[in-house]
Write a structure and sequence with these properties.
The complex is a heterodimer of chains A (314) and B (515).
Chain A: H1 3-33, H2 43-52, H3 64-83, H4 99-119, H5 123-154, H6 159-168, H7 175-191, H8 210-213, H9 219-244, H10 258-282, H11 291-313
Chain B: E1 2-3, E2 6-7, E3 11-12, E4 19-23, H1 29-38, E5 42-50, E6 58-66, E7 69-77, E8 87-89, H2 98-109, E9 112-114, E10 160-165, E11 177-183, E12 186-193, H3 201-205, H4 210-218, H5 225-240, H6 246-274, H7 278-299, E13 308-309, E14 312-313, H8 320-343, H9 345-351, H10 359-365, H11 369-373, H12 381-384, H13 405-429, E15 446-453, E16 458-465, E17 471-477, H14 480-490, H15 499-506, H16 511-514
Parallel strand pairs in B: 4-7, 8-9
Antiparallel strand pairs in B: 1-2, 3-4, 5-6, 6-7, 10-11, 11-12, 13-14, 15-16, 16-17
Classes of the chains: A mainly alpha (314), B alpha+beta (515).
C-alpha cells in the first residue's frame, strides 16, 4: 500500500470521525449567540451512540429500499468526503471523480433519500421529498456553475488541480471567485437544510424539508442518516475551503506539511462553523416559495462569476 | 332592554352593570338572535342544561354580546314527552360560530338544533355511546370504545391530496387533528377535528363544593388560569350575593394582567421560533421565565394557580417595589426585542399577509378576543364593559385592521405595554382592606355568570349552585370556540409550511374548548 492510498484512507476516516464534531461546534456557537447555555461539543456523538443502542422501528409498509437507503446515503457521503482534498492534494481517488461527478454523488444520495421517504407512503415523507426535489433541482445547476467558474481558472474540473492552481502556484486575486464563493455559500445552506432555507431543529412537521423525509427513521438507520448529514456539512465545508481558501492544504508528496495542513483545516472549519452559526442566528427561515428566488440569485451570482472571469482574468 | 323592535325583560345581574339575565320562549330565540345580529352584536356562547331535577325539563342557554353588555338568555325546551327530542331553533345560520357549540350541546345533552346544516358529532369521539348524553343527570357511565369515523368533507379534483396532521404531533403540543386538502403546497381546505382532550370537566363540577370548583375552573385551560378562576368566582359570588372586598378585585386584575403578559411573551417567542428565529424565541422565553419567577416570589406560584378564590384572593401584593422594578426591566427589554422584530426583513416577510382574516370575515364569523382585535373587531370587555377595577384604569384597546400574523403580533406587543401600565397603576392605587369574605350560603338554587377578558379573549363561566350549596351545573366557555373556525378560513390560499405560524399567531386552547 503506497502513501497516497494511506493518506486517502486517513482523510476519509478523519472526515467521518470529525464530522459530528463540526456539527457540535456549530450548535455550540449557535447556542452562545442566542444567549443560552450550550450543549457539550460532543453532543452529536452522544446522540449517535444513543441511536445505535436503540431497536429500530420500521413501518409495516416499508420495502427493502427503506432499510437500504441509510447505508447508501452514508456511503455516498463517505465517498464524497474522499474526493474533496482536505489536508493533502494527492488523493488516488480524485482522478476517479471530478467536481461534476461529486455533484452526481450528492444527487445519488438525495434520490435514495427521497425514494425512501416516499416508500412508506406517509404524507409527510412525500411532502418532504417533493420539497427536497424543488430545492435540489434549483441548487444543482447553481453548484455546477460554481464549479465551472473555479475550473475555468485551473482549466480542469479535478479538485486537486483546482487546489494546486489556487494555492500552490503564484498567488493571484480572482474576482470571479468572490462571486462564486457567495453563490456557493447560498447553495451550501440550501443543500445542507440550514436556515434560512430549512430549519434542522424544528419540530413543526408541516414546515420541514429534510426532517420530513426522515421522520419515520429510528435507531441505527436514523443514526446513519444523522451522521451522513454531519458528513455532508463537513464535506461541503471542506469543498468551500478547497475552492476558495485552499491555502494550507499540503501539496502532493509534501508529507512534512501535513501537520500544518491539519491545523489549517481545524482553524478554517472552526471559523466556518462559527460563521454558519452567526448567519443562522441573525436570519429567519424564508417562506418556502422564496427559496427559488434565493437559489436563482445563487445561480445568477455563479454565472456572473463566470462572466467576470472572461472579462477580467483571461 | 330594547334589542331590535322588541323590549325584552332582561335584568342586570346582581353587582354588575355589564351582565344581563333573561328568559325567553324557545320560539323567540331566532328573532332575538337576528335582532342582536342586526345591532352588530355577537353570539358568545351556547350551552345546555338538564333541569329535570328542578322541576323543569332541559334548557338551552345563550350568551349574546350586545351594546349593553353580555346578555345571558335561557329557554326551557319541550321534549319532556317520551320519544320527543328536546329541540331549539338552529342559530348557526345567523351566527356561524354557534355551529360547533350546538353540535357539542347535542353530544353532551341531546338537545337538538332543529334544521341545522351540520349535524355531525363534535365532542363525542366514541368514548361514550351514541344516544347517551353525559351531562344528563341520569347518565350512567359505561365504558365504550368505538372508532371515531368522523366524516370529513372531501375535496376532489386533479392533483388534490390530503395530509392528515395530528392528533399526535412531533412537538409537545396539545392534540388536535388537522385535515389539509392541498394542491402542491397550497391549501384548498382545512378541516379541524378537536375534542381529543375531552375530560368531562363540566360533569366533574357537579356536586363539587365552591372552593374546589374554583380550583377546577382555573385548570380548564391552564394558560388562562386567572381568567377562568376570576370568571368562576364572579359567577358564584354573584349567585350567592356576596360582595367581594375592593382590594381583592384589584388584586385579581393584577393577577390577570400578570398572566396576560406571561402568555404574550411566550407567544411572541414562539412566533419567532416558528420562523426559525431562535434568537427571538430564547430571548422572549428568558423574559417569560424571569416573569414567572417573579410571580412565584411575589405571589407563591409561577402561574398564579389558586390565588383567586371564591370571596376574594389568597395572595397579597406585599413587595410592590419588586413588581415595579420587574415591570420596568421587562418593558425595556421587550422594546429592544420589538425593534429587532420590526427590522428583521425575513421575519416581517413571513408575518405580513400570512393567515389573513379580513375584518368583514371576522365580523361575520364572530372572531373574538386578541385575534378579533387584530382584525378590527374592537371588543375588549375591559374597555367597553369595565368591571371593578377596570373602570378606574381607562384601558387602552389595541387594535389592528390587517388581520394577519403581523397584526396579531402587534396587538400582543401593544397589550404587553398596556398591561405593564395597568400593573403599575394597580400597584400604585391598590386600596387597603381585607383580602376575602366568606360566601353567604344561599339555601336555594341560585345562578350567576362571570365574564372576564382573559389574554386570549373573553372567558365566560356560568354556574348554578344547588340548594345544598354545592355546584349543580357549571359551563365554561373559552374564546377558542369562536376562533378555531377562523383558523380554517384564515389558512385558505396560504401554503402548508405557513400553517404552524398562523396557528401559533392565534394560539387557541384545545383543553378550553374540549372541556
Amino acid at each position: 500500500m503506497n502513501a497516497g492510498t494511506l493518506l486517502q484512507i486517513a482523510q476519509t476516516l478523519l472526515a467521518i470521525a470529525l464530522a459530528p464534531l463540526l456539527l457540535g461546534w456549530t450548535n455550540q456557537c449557535r447556542a452562545w449567540m442566542q444567549g443560552r447555555g450550550a450543549p457539550p461539543i460532543t453532543q452529536p456523538y452522544r446522540t449517535l451512540r444513543k441511536l445505535f443502542h436503540k431497536d429500530a422501528v420500521i413501518a409495516h409498509t416499508a420495502s427493502p429500499l427503506f432499510r437500504f437507503a441509510p447505508y447508501m446515503i452514508f456511503a455516498c457521503m463517505a465517498l464524497a468526503a474522499g474526493i474533496v482534498p482536505m489536508i493533502a492534494n494527492d488523493l488516488p481517488f480524485s482522478p476517479a471523480a471530478d467536481a461534476i461527478a461529486l455533484v452526481g454523488v450528492f444527487a445519488l444520495a438525495r434520490v435514495f433519500q427521497a425514494l425512501a421517504a416516499m416508500d412508506i407512503g406517509t404524507s409527510f415523507g412525500s411532502l418532504g421529498a417533493r420539497r427536497e426535489m424543488l430545492v435540489s433541482f434549483l441548487a444543482e445547476p447553481a453548484l455546477l456553475m460554481v464549479f465551472f467558474t473555479a475550473s475555468l481558472i485551473s482549466q480542469s474540473t479535478e479538485l486537486p488541480h483546482i487546489v494546486e492552481t489556487l494555492a500552490h502556484k503564484e498567488f493571484a486575486i480572482y474576482p470571479s471567485l468572490a462571486f462564486a464563493a457567495v453563490a456557493f455559500w447560498m447553495i451550501s445552506v440550501a443543500e445542507n437544510a440550514r436556515i434560512p432555507v430549512d430549519n434542522p431543529t424544528t419540530h413543526l412537521e408541516l414546515t420541514m424539508i429534510h426532517e420530513a423525509m426522515i421522520l419515520e427513521y429510528s435507531a441505527r438507520h436514523l443514526a446513519l442518516i444523522e451522521w451522513a448529514v454531519a458528513l455532508k456539512l463537513f464535506t461541503y465545508s471542506a469543498l468551500g475551503i478547497a475552492l476558495f481558501l485552499p491555502w494550507g492544504i499540503a501539496p502532493a508528496g509534501d508529507y512534512a506539511a501535513l501537520p500544518l495542513a491539519l491545523l489549517a483545516l481545524f482553524v478554517k472549519l472552526a471559523g466556518g462553523g462559527a460563521v454558519l452559526a452567526f448567519m443562522e442566528t441573525i436570519s429567519a427561515k424564508m417562506r418556502l416559495f422564496r427559496v427559488p428566488e434565493f437559489l436563482g440569485t445563487a445561480f445568477l451570482l455563479a454565472v456572473l462569476g463566470m462572466l467576470i472571469h472572461f472579462l477580467l482574468e483571461v | 332592554m330594547k334589542i331590535g323592535d322588541h323590549d325584552w325583560a332582561f335584568a342586570p345581574q346582581a353587582g354588575s352593570n355589564a351582565i344581563w339575565r333573561g328568559r325567553v320562549e324557545v320560539a323567540q330565540l331566532a328573532a332575538l338572535a337576528r335582532a342582536v345580529k342586526e345591532e352588530g352584536g355577537q353570539l358568545v356562547a351556547l350551552w345546555g342544561s338538564d333541569d329535570r331535577h328542578l322541576g323543569g325539563a332541559y334548557s338551552v342557554h345563550i350568551a349574546f354580546l350586545t351594546g349593553a353588555g353580555l346578555v345571558w338568555v335561557s329557554s326551557a325546551l319541550g321534549g319532556v314527552l317520551a320519544g320527543e327530542a328536546p329541540a331549539y331553533p338552529d342559530l348557526a345560520h345567523i351566527f356561524p360560530q354557534a355551529d360547533r357549540m350546538q353540535r357539542a350541546t347535542f353530544d353532551l345533552l341531546g338537545l337538538q338544533a332543529e334544521a341545522a346544516v351540520d349535524q355531525r358529532k363534535w365532542l363525542r369521539h366514541g368514548a361514550w355511546a351514541e344516544g347517551s348524553f353525559p351531562l344528563r343527570k341520569d347518565f350512567q357511565a359505561e365504558p365504550v370504545r368505538e372508532l371515531d369515523a368522523y366524516p370529513f368533507i372531501q375535496v376532489e379534483g386533479d392533483g388534490v391530496h390530503e395530509i392528515p396532521v395530528g392528533p399526535i404531533h412531533a412537538g409537545t403540543i396539545e392534540p388536535g387533528h388537522f385535515r389539509f386538502s392541498i394542491i402542491g403546497d397550497r391549501v384548498l381546505r382545512l378541516e379541524q377535528r378537536l375534542g381529543y382532550t375531552h375530560k368531562g370537566t363540566e360533569k366533574r363540577f357537579e356536586g363539587m363544593d365552591l372552593a374546589t370548583g374554583a380550583q377546577l375552573a382555573g385548570r380548564i385551560s391552564g394558560d388562562s388560569h386567572s381568567a377562568y378562576a376570576w370568571a368562576y368566582c364572579m359567577a358564584v359570588e354573584s349567585a350567592t350575593g356576596s360582595v367581594v372586598p375592593e382590594r381583592a378585585l384589584w388584586l385579581r386584575a393584577l393577577f390577570l394582567e400578570v398572566e396576560r403578559i406571561a402568555n404574550h411573551l411566550g407567544d411572541l417567542g414562539y412566533l419567532g421560533n416558528d420562523v426559525a428565529l431562535a434568537f427571538g424565541f430564547m430571548q422572549f422565553w428568558r423574559l417569560k421565565e424571569d416573569w414567572l419567577r417573579l410571580s412565584a416570589r411575589l405571589f407563591g406560584h409561577r402561574y398564579l394557580f389558586d390565588r383567586i378564590v371564591p370571596g376574594g384572593v389568597a395572595a397579597d401584593l406585599t413587595d410592590a417595589a419588586a413588581l415595579l422594578a420587574g415591570a420596568d426591566r421587562l418593558e425595556a427589554e421587550v422594546r429592544d426585542l420589538k425593534a429587532i422584530y420590526d427590522e428583521h426583513s425575513v421575519l416581517q416577510d413571513r408575518f405580513a399577509n400570512t393567515g389573513t382574516c379580513k375584518p368583514a370575515l371576522a365580523a361575520r364569523l364572530g372572531l373574538a378576543g386578541l385575534a378579533g382585535r387584530a382584525s378590527a373587531q374592537a371588543w375588549d370587555a375591559r374597555v367597553q364593559f369595565p368591571q371593578t377595577p377596570y373602570q378606574h384604569l381607562d384601558v387602552n384597546m389595541a387594535t389592528q385592521r390587517r388581520g394577519d400574523v403581523w397584526a396579531r403580533a402587534e396587538v400582543r406587543f401593544a397589550e404587553v405595554y398596556e398591561s405593564l401600565r395597568l400593573l403599575r397603576e394597580i400597584a400604585r392605587r391598590l386600596p387597603a382592606g381585607p383580602l376575602s369574605v366568606a360566601l353567604a350560603p344561599a339555601g336555594q338554587s341560585v345562578e350567576g355568570l362571570g365574564w372576564v377578558e382573559g389574554w386570549r379573549g373573553d372567558v365566560l363561566v356560568a354556574a348554578r349552585i344547588g340548594a345544598d350549596g354545592r355546584l349543580d351545573r357549571v359551563h365554561a366557555h373559552d374564546p377558542s370556540w369562536q376562533n378555531w373556525p377562523l383558523l380554517e378560513v384564515g389558512i385558505l390560499g396560504n401554503i402548508v409550511p405557513d400553517f404552524p405560524l398562523i396557528n401559533k399567531s392565534f394560539n387557541l386552547s384545545y383543553s378550553g374548548q374540549d372541556l
